[in-house]
Design a protein that fits this description.
By secondary structure, this protein is α/β, with parallel strands linked by helices. It has helices at about 5-30, 40-65, 70-85, 90-110, 110-125, 135-150, 155-175, 180-185, 190-205, 220-225, 245-260, 280-290, 300-310, 325-330, 350-360, 375-385, 400-405, 415-425, 465-480, 500-510; strands at about 235-240, 260-265, 270-275, 290-300, 315-320, 335-340, 360-365, 390, 430-435, 440, 445, 450-455, 460-465, 485-490, 515-520, 525-530.
């Protein structure tokens, strides 16, 4: 095993950190009392690291076909970027900045692990509008101080010292922050960071650090704490933001006046913004004025607390959808949705979180994408360990998910409902229209960049020059085997008359076939389903 940080050690670190946070997630959630006792710090840290790990794996996958291997700079940039775009909650956002600070040093190979930990602690404090002692920031600073005292260039000694001191700093957090002392717990974010640092020790030295008793209270103690302090902001707002430094400086000033727990991390034109406010709309509007906000998440603290307290329902459906319009459609039908944006498939942790949010004893999971089958299977397995009965229907397109959801009957027995939904999904052929990004070989021949590709059941069946004409050809191919109902899902950027044209085409050529048109929203693909 390596004694210094290199690309392989970073990859191992991600894997071990994810395992550690997976083991401790429930305990960390349970002791989450600051800044808001919303019981999700462990989950947020897990999702943040999962995004980082996925980005690092993508770097290694890109090198697998060649003789070269990724270097430390490649792996650290990917880890920091993955954490930035996937950061969740207050602690997850701060962790993303800690990793960015480490990357700034390690990419330049100037300072080793000790210098990286020092820059991490400094940059995290700079990102928080009003740093508070007794939090993850105190644990990070203590780790950096200890690493500073080791021999220069000895990464193993630096991370061991950092971990040991971080454990002691974590034990001290109840004495630094009154709310922790009253609840009898250590800081949840700090405990998560200790888990991440422990994984770093094992990745660099090859030896797992000895388990250290932190003096943390049993999770039940924290559960007895007041769930959400009265008088605090009602909403947590998080979004990614494309903006320049000057605009972000103005944004920080404005958001600081709107609420608290403000953390803005990132740089080089991409930022992750986190704030607790009463007016969520104004917080988003401030982002619009600063640049281009996206991946906006708004959580109502009281609603989240109510969801934890309410009695579980018997059955729910969780569906992955590729656009806001489809999300609204599925939610109207009673499903809990997970949005899959172009190039940003949901991680297994996000699916597990959605299953928990559904708050049901039985869950039907619809991944609606062939590429998500392993991710969905992992999420289902995790949810089963938590006592939820989960059935995974391997839907490969949103139109199959819509067909399954249309026959969902929660009053039926679970097995009968799953069989009916599976049958409806399986009886639905699916097509998709997309534009080729480059010249390539397909099952329908060679396509050029800019060609319109018509896919049927996942394979390219038609290559055309015009979107509407290609869609009509795809419809004809799909309906040649028969059908009773055509489902069209149109993206926001589709030509205005496209839906009417395709609907008329079906009506003229197939008198017994009905057509239903849905609007998928921004970023959704043009989908066709034939039942």
């Amino acid at each position: 095993m390596p004694q210094t940080l290199d690309a392989l050690a970073v990859r191992t670190w991600c894997s071990l950190a994810l395992e550690a946070l997976g083991r401790e997630r429930e305990e960390i959630d349970a002791i989450n009392v600051y800044p808001v006792a919303d019981g999700d710090t462990g989950t947020n840290l897990y999702l943040t690291v999962e995004s980082a790990a996925r980005a690092v794996e993508a770097v290694f996958a890109a090198y697998e076909t060649g003789s070269a291997a990724p270097v430390l700079a490649d792996a650290m940039r990917a880890m920091a970027h993955g954490a930035l775009i996937g950061a969740r909650g207050n602690s997850g956002t701060i962790l993303a900045q800690l990793l960015r600070g480490m990357a700034e040093v390690l990419v330049e190979r100037d300072g080793g692990a000790a210098g990286a930990l020092r820059r991490a602690a400094e940059s995290a404090r700079e990102a928080v509008a009003h740093p508070v002692e007794g939090t993850i920031l105190s644990v990070a600073s203590a780790a950096a101080d200890a690493a500073d005292g080791t021999v220069s260039g000895d990464d193993a000694a630096a991370v061991r010292a950092a971990y040991a001191c971080a454990c002691r700093a974590l034990e001290n957090t109840p004495g630094q922050l009154e709310v922790l002392g009253r609840a009898g717990v250590v800081d949840a974010g700090g405990q998560g960071l200790v888990a991440v640092l422990g994984a770093l020790v094992e990745a660099v030295t090859g030896e797992a650090p000895a388990v250290r008793h932190t003096g943390r209270a049993h999770p039940a103690v924290a559960a007895a704490a007041e769930p959400c302090a009265e008088g605090g902001p009602a909403f947590e707002v998080i979004y990614l933001l494309e903006a320049d430094d000057t605009a972000v400086t103005r944004l920080k000033d404005r958001l600081d006046g709107l609420g608290d727990s403000l953390v803005v991390v990132g740089g080089d034109g991409l930022w992750n913004v986190h704030v607790h406010v009463d007016d969520a709309g104004e917080a988003v509007e401030a982002g619009v004025e600063a640049g281009r906000p996206y991946r906006i998440r708004i959580t109502h603290f009281a609603a989240a607390d109510h969801a934890e307290r309410r009695e579980p329902v018997q059955r729910a459906v969780v569906a992955v959808v590729p656009g806001e319009g489809l999300a609204g459609l599925c939610e109207t039908a009673g499903a809990t949705t997970v949005l899959a944006r172009p190039g940003e498939p949901p991680a297994s942790g996000e699916l597990v979180e959605a299953i928990r949010r559904a708050h049901a004893r039985e869950v039907v999971l619809l991944p609606n994408d062939a590429e998500l089958r392993h991710t969905a299977a992992a999420a289902a397995e995790q949810a089963r360990t938590e006592g939820v009965r989960v059935a995974l229907i391997p839907t490969r397109s949103a139109v199959q998910g819509i067909a399954a959801l249309a026959v969902h009957e929660p009053d039926r027995s679970f097995d009968e409902d799953v069989v009916a939904m599976t049958s409806a999904a399986g009886a639905t052929r699916y097509g998709e229209l997309t534009v080729a990004e480059r010249q390539s070989f397909t099952s329908a021949g060679v396509c050029q960049a800019g060609d319109v590709l018509g896919l049927i059941d996942g394979d390219v069946a038609v290559i055309g020059a015009d979107l509407a004409e290609t869609a009509e050809t795809v419809l004809d191919r799909m309906l040649s085997a028969g059908g009773e109902l055509v489902t069209l899902v149109l993206p926001d950027d589709a030509p205005a008359a496209l839906g009417d044209r395709l609907e008329s085409h079906v009506r003229r050529g197939y008198l017994a076939v009905d057509t239903v048109v849905h609007h998928g929203g921004r970023g959704a693909p043009l989908l066709i389903g034939v039942e």
